[in-house]
Amino acid sequence: MRIVTEQSQSYSFSRRAVMLGVAQGGVGLMLAGRMAWLSIAQNEHYQAMSESNRVNMTLVPPRRGWIVDRNGAPIANNRTDFRVDIIPDRLEDKDRVLAVLGQILSLPPEEIERINIDLKHAAGFQPVQVIENLDWERFAAVSVRLPELPGVAPTRGFSRNYPAGAAVAHLTGYVGAASADQYRETKDPLMVTPGFKLGKDGLEKTLEPSLRGSPGAKRVEVTARGKLVKELETRPDVPGKTARLTIDAGLQEYAARRLGTNSGSVVMIDCDTGDILAMVSMPAYDPNLFSDGISHLEWKMLSDNDHVPLMNKTLQGLYPPGSTVKPMNALALLNAGVSASERVNCSGAMRLGTGVFHCHKRGGHGPLDMKNAVMQSCDIYFYEMARRVGYDAIAPVARTLGMGQKFDLPFGSQRYGTMPDSAWKQKKYKTSWTIADSLNASIGQGYVLANPFQLAVMAARIGSGKNLIPRLLMSGPAPNPQPLPYSAEHLAVVREAMFGVVNQGGTGGRARMLVPGVALAAKTGTAQVRRITMSERAGGVLKNSQLPFKMRDHALFVCFAPADKPKYAMAVVLEHNGHTVANLDTPLTGRDIMTYMFDRERALASLAEVEPTWGGDIATRATAEAAAYRAAATAPPPAVGLATEQNAGAPTDAPAVEAATAAANATAEAQAHDTATGNGIAQTTGSPEPR
Asked: Which of 134, 204, 328, 654 would be 173's cystine partner, CB 3.0–4.6 Å?
């Protein structure tokens, strides 16, 4: 038994007191340290958390950089926009919210149904448009009732605007809301910010990094229930950079209008600098509609159109260039040692082995030298000369002039065509090049394919005598092109022949300029796209006016002006035009567009005379076409047709474009087969010219 004394009891108490004091001191130090850590080291973190309970911050989409022409005129700019969106993830009691919005905004029943359909198909974070281009009164009415409208996002910002509409569609492309895949890939909150749009096609897509800018931030003080107390200081956005193009906006719009109801393209290039002044593909879509979210019915209408308005024909369209290659071939013949004065007698046909190769003029042209062969577009002259020198002597010159060449342009979708020779055929078909191949290629048929842009470069290089490098973006001085590796005398012969095509009784007389002191040098062309059977040949080849649209010949035209000192060069390609209507054919179209560069008033007067006969300007015809399509449509129902098309990808990658490309490839292969089996264009018809 332990005896507890007063002394031991006092000692035990003192020890416990000390231990307790030490423990209390330790706890105190820990608390003090924690308080110091929270108040000093973590001050910024908890201050931000506290602030977030009081302040609501949302990103403000940046104003997109403008796209302007060479003179500063806007091609794509921004307009002030009041709009209302719904964020599906934040939406509560959908029916009640839509009923309130319908009342405030006076939305018709079909619009409510369209919103319901869009909500059903949208990703949870993806804004669904309720209405855009709101007036201030209705926008304010929605804003003051936000506490009872969870998921509704009124936005005051800027929308993309394309003043020239369809005339610039395939140049600029368009902008649209970010896709679910783009958000998942980047996790960028800007992607899901209402009102934010990014480039989807064309220049808007390729120039996205510089055009986008940096977002701002909007700060508002709210109550615990989220009710707005007051707006606080906001962080302004940083606008994107302006992109300046070499394009002349006035010329671009004029050329688009002058194409009328044609399916085709125009490219014009400055012969001094290589600047691209116009790059038009028509018909086209209105990029303003795409940027706002195109409807299912509108997308279907564009996809069903046999003129393929979703295709950028300047870069994606490939065509047999027809007789437009004859000036280029003449330069190659001169380079190979052929004399310009040497004559070939054209009787209308040329026998090669057991085959007969025809000229477009069945009775023949008689004896012709090089200049007159180009002027009259004589096939027999070029058959004979290609047979003599071999096509391997022509193909390298063609490549030097831009045929088959790849150009550094800010577009994602380009096709480069074919400039064939014996090595190419051996590699592709594992067969040898034949004389028949040379004859077909000499008139721009057979295996030869080019896009309109390459044809414009060809015309510009012949006109200037320089190895022009085309450019679209005006960033720094224009490149200094080197002279072509051909003599000035040879180039002069070719230019003189092209002058004669228009001004001395050649095939392009209708293209003669009416501007005093300005002459046009040009070459017309026709490219056959269908197979002509033996029975049709025996009974008489059908005229283009007797054929359906897709079976008609393409019409082509290359030119430069003034003929004596070229300043501008151009290519016009009209799909399935068939030379059926004079004021829609290439000579008058090319003449008027070139006239715009020298006498704008005269060009506009000419357009004003013929445009009403086509049904009005681009917008008027598009409106009428859309109304007719809607009236004829039996499905889908109106609400579904109005719903936003969720699968509308970039127009240049659309299924309709892929189908058109596949069909063109099949036609090219069929013609290649005909050439190889002795039934090519040269054997059947020659190269028909405009009448």
From this structure: 204
